[in-house]
Amino acid sequence: MELYRTLSSEHEWPVFSVPLRSGHIIYVVYRNFVDEWGVDYLIHQSAWPAAETLAVDDGHFMGPGMAWPELLSAARQSATEGVGDADARLLLLFPTLGDALLPDDAAPALTNALDALTLIEEPAEVARMLLANQGQWAPARWRPAGGVWINDGEHSYRNPGNAFALPEGRLLEISNALNGMR
After folding, report:
1. pLDDT-based confidence at 175, cuts 50/70/90?
2. Could you count the other beta carbons within 10 Å of the beta carbon of residue 41?
3. Which domain holds residue 79?
4. Cα 87 from chain centroid (whole Å)
5. How confident is the model at residue 182 (pLDDT cuts 50, 70, 90)?
6. Which residue of 33, 89, 99, 166 has the smallest Cβ count within 10 Å?
């Protein structure tokens, strides 16, 4: 209950930072407006004028923000500041996932993180259920296009076919950062 109260406090918005090797930082912001709470997944780099939105988990959801290989890569990048534990990073960023083509290693990786950090009695069953029912959006199909990972999600900032999509240069930089490139 104490954790729930902290995460949902109207007077304080908890923010978790997930630094990447590239110098980019993913911020997970628990936005606590009365009757309009949500979680924002933002990515920022010091040269940018403002953070970019990867995904939004609320009643007006936007996403997906990451493909499975990007999620796993971001989780496994070591950090000396912010959230450093790979399992914690995987679980914290998991709600950004929307990937229709999951590899065979997805369930074991998620199971290991759940087993390490939760008291769930059947982590493998929960992992399979979470992977089968990703986010509020339909799982997207991801593909490389000119070095950029893009998807076909109707609510995704990383689908260049959407009017609200991030600019191509920003999409390339985000793809590189999530995949561990500098």
Report:
1. very high
2. 24
3. 2-178
4. 13
5. low
6. 33
pLDDT in tens, 127-159: 999 999 998 888 899 999 988 999 999 999 999
Measured distance CA(112)–CA(61) in Å, rounded: 28
The predicted model scores a pTM of 0.93
Written in H, E and C, the secondary structure of the chain is CHHHHHHCCCCCCCEEEEECCCCCEEEEEEEEECCEEEEEEEEECCCCCCCEEEEEECCCCEECCECHHHHHHHHHCCCCCCCCCHHHHHHHHHHHECECCCCCCHHHHHHHHHHHHCCCCCHHHHHHHHHHCCCCCCCECEEEECCEEEECCCECCCCCCCCCCCCHHHHHHHHHHHCCCC
Count of domains observed in the chain: 1
Q: Which one-letter amino acid corresponds to residue 86?
A: A
